[in-house]
Amino acid sequence: MRLSRYFLPVLKETPSEAQIVSHRLMLRAGMIKQAAAGIYSWLPLGFKVLRKLENIVHEEQTRAGHIAIQMPILQSADLWRESGRYDDYGQEMLRMQDRHGRDMLYTPTAEELVTDIFRGHVSSYKDLPLTLYQIQWKFRDEIRPRFGVMRGREFYMKDGYNFDLTKEDALHAYNRHLVSYLRTYERMGLQAIPMRADSGPIGGDNTHEFLVLADTGESEVFYDSDVVNLSLANVGNGLDSLNYDSHEDMQAIANFFTSTYARTDETHDPKIFESQVPEERRRVARGIEVGQIFYFGTKYSEAMGATVQGPDGKPVPVHMGSHGIGVSRLIGAIIEASHDDKGIIWPEGVTPFHCGIVNLKQGDEEADAACDKLYSALTALGLEPLYDDRKERAGGKFATMDLIGLPWRITVGPRGLKNGVVELTCRRTGESEELSPEAAVTKIA
Ligand code: ATP
Ligand code: MG
Ligand code: MG
Ligand code: MG
Predict the structure, then answer these.
(1) From the CB of 154, is ligand 1 less than 6 Å away?
(2) Ligand 1 atom nearest residue 210's Cα
(3) What are 5-48's pLDDT values in tens digits?
(4) Do the beta carbons of residue 368 and residue 359 sit within 8 Å?
(5) Which CDD domains does the record cross-reference, listed alphabetically (predicted)?
(6) 272 CA from centroid of ligand 4 (Å)
(7) Do 437 and 370 contact (CB within 8 A), yes or no?
(8) Are the beta carbons of 154 and 139 closer than 8 angstroms?
């Protein structure tokens, strides 16, 4: 992409309404524009990152054997009356009526809708296990929308639902989600720690939230500092050998990640914390909830009559769970975890462009030709460069590149070209080196 033809409305001033760095940087980098409280338009750069995250989520869900569907954003209230949640859900649910006076609502979550799909089409245990998921806009009328996309009212969420014959199978689905989520966050350059969370009125301990540690997080968390060292790299023979079908393998990984003390404030137990965790390893911190997995048994299947015929021919209500990833919130979390005073520093896996090209003397024949050549070479390798071909001062171009945080910048100017070199700068370390244009391309690829 050539910057002169792109739409990147960066702001010079720091917007005063933004209280945390990720919100400020998303506004300054021209990623989003507020449309109403907690509701945003996604501008090209922000939209590109959102799509990257969405792709990673799809790939990892597919790898785990989960199947994508798309359900509507507007739902009829009838299904929610069946489950009994229409009255319980409260004011976070945005309700409306259509022209015939029928009660409708904007999806805050979709257990009812997906259970209705299931009961309409699945009747035998032989069709299980089944996990359906979607990535779709949600609306929750949050009392205090804030921090930009972190706590929006409209937000983009992956929500998945498993249907299984037995509790044991459903717990395997739970573990599959846990593992696939860890892979997902890791590919986004993030560490999200699974923490035991509150399962509310249903009870049981079968729910974990995934938290990214950050001072600006809204959750208070308690953990053993050892938990931070756990990594998928230490599991079995590495990532690509994961066998999602193996109950034992999935259980072993889940145990590995959830045996060390890590809890949100609702489930935190000071007695256990103090007896299990040596004092020097006890940590109290803040975190951003970027996902949650939940096994809830037959709550919805019983209420809504989602049964299958079991091996003995008798109807059995299916065991279910629901599992969410906050896709749009993740962008804020990634920026909170990865920035400096000049701007965003995108992890390679989610960056909107792989590399910036800065032409120090636009209009100079040699410099223009060298930039065009770099652009083609990078594109031919399947990489996406962003070429700043505007007639601007070098300082302004550098500031824009630093703000939008691409991992690499190639700076091209007549003086370097006389010696056959360009400058390659790593956004994360700030280190620069001079090398031939070909060598720069090789290094980025
Ligand atoms: P929170 O505790 O932050 O209100 P939640 O527990 O109500 O979140 P879930 O129902 O678990 O949210 O939804 C799954 C995921 O969707 C969350 O883990 C979070 O990442 C994301 N999410 C929830 N509410 C919002 C929101 N208002 N804005 C952006 N993302 C959200
Ligand atoms: Mg909430
Ligand atoms: Mg929560
Ligand atoms: Mg939650």
Answers:
(1) no
(2) 18
(3) 999 999 988 888 899 999 999 999 999 999 999 999 999 999 99
(4) yes
(5) ProRS_anticodon_short, ProRS_core_prok
(6) 23
(7) yes
(8) yes
